[in-house]
Amino acid sequence: MKPADLSNSERLALELGHAGRNAIVYIDEDRNADRPITLHTYRPYGHTPDCPVVIVQHGVMRNGDDYRDFWVPAADKHKLLIVAPTFSNQIWPGVESYNNGLAYTAMGNPRHVEGWAYALPARVVADLIAAELADGSNTYLFGHSAGGQFVHRLMSSQSHTPWKEVTLGNPGWYTLPTLERKFPEGLGGVGLTEDHLERLLSYPMTILAADRDTETQGEHLPCDPPALAQGPHRHARAHNYLEAGRTEARRLGLACNWTLHSVPGVGHDGRAMSAVCASLWFDGKMPDADEIARITGGPVA
Predict the structure, then answer these.
(1) Is the CB of residue 184 less than 8 Å from the CB of residue 171?
(2) Spatial separation of the C-alpha atoms in residues 75 and 81, rounded to whole Å
(3) How far apart are CA 58 and CA 230, in angstroms?
(4) By CB count within 10 A, which of 31, 72, 171, 299 is most buried?
(5) How far apart are CA 71 and CA 47, in angstroms?
C-alpha cells in the first residue's frame, strides 16, 4: 500500500513506529480536506501506549517544530509522546484561521463548530488511539501565546472528553466567557450555547501568566479596543479573564474551576512556559527560583 493510500491512523502507526523526531502530514478528511496540517512529533525511547501524550499548540510564528523541541527534555524524563499540530500560514492564513479557529466562512457566516480549526487536535488524538500509540487516558493539552488563544477557544467550543489536563500560557487576549459579545470577543453569534459556557467554567483549566510579560506594545500584541479593554498587557489580561470567568460563574450559580499561576521571572518565553507546565503536570509542582533561572538563563528578581 502506498503512503498516500493510508488512513491517518495507519500513517501515524507507521511514522511513529520508532523513537525520535518526525514531521507527519495530517489531513482532516471530514471538514478540512483541503487544509492539511503538519504534526511535529517526538517519541522518546521507552514510550508505550499507556504513557502520556502532550498536544502542544504553537504561537504566532507557526513554529510547531520549536514547540515540540521545547518539550523534549520533559518527554525524555517522563516518557511523553509530544505532538505539535502545526498550522502553516500559507494554508491557514492569519489570525482568523489559527488564533480564531476559522470560525467564519469567507462570506462572514459562522461555520459549523465541528469544522473549526479547534476540532483538529481531538481528531489527532482519536487517530493516535486507533493507531495504538495512546490509550486515551493520559492526554494533555498546552498552548502558548497564539497557541494559548487557540487552546482556551478550543475549550470554549469543543468537547473536553479527550483531555486529562489543559493549560494555556500568555495569550495576547481572550475570548470572554459570555454569549453577550460576538465571537471572538465573546462566545456569541456562532452557534455556541449556555451549555458550552457552563462546561468551560466548570473545567479545571490552568492559566499561566508570566509576571514579566508586561510589554504594552509589540508586533504580535493585540492592541485593538476589545483587547485593550482587557488590560494593558498579557499579564493583566490573564487576571481579567479569570475574574470574568468568576463573574459569569456567579451569575450562573456555578463554581469557576480555573486556576491562575503567576510565573515569576519569566517574560513572553515559550520554552520557559513549556518547562513550567511540564513541571506542574509531571513533577506536581511549580519550579522553584533556581530552576526557573536555569530555564531562562538568569536569576529571578
Answers:
(1) no
(2) 7
(3) 23
(4) 171
(5) 14
Check residue 110 and report its DSSP letter: B
Burial class (CB in 10 A: 0-12, 13-18, 19+), 72: middle
Helix, strand, or coil (residue 249): helix
Owner of C-alpha cell 491562575: 260
Residue 2 CB burial class (10 angstroms; 0-12, 13-18, ≥19)? exposed
Rounded to a whole number of angstroms, the CA Rg of the chain reads 18
**ω before 3 within 30° of 0 (cis)?**
no
Global confidence as pTM: 0.96
Q: Determine contact, residues 294/284, Cβ cutoff 8 Å.
A: no
d(CA 99, CA 67): 16
Task: Look up residue 28 and give its DSSP letter.
Answer: E
169-210 pLDDT, tens per residue?
Answer: 999 999 999 999 999 999 999 999 999 999 999 999 999 999
For the chain, the first-to-last Cα distance in angstroms comes to: 58
Q: Are 23 and 39 in contact (CB under 8 A)?
A: yes
- For residue 86, how far is the Cα from the chain centroid? 11
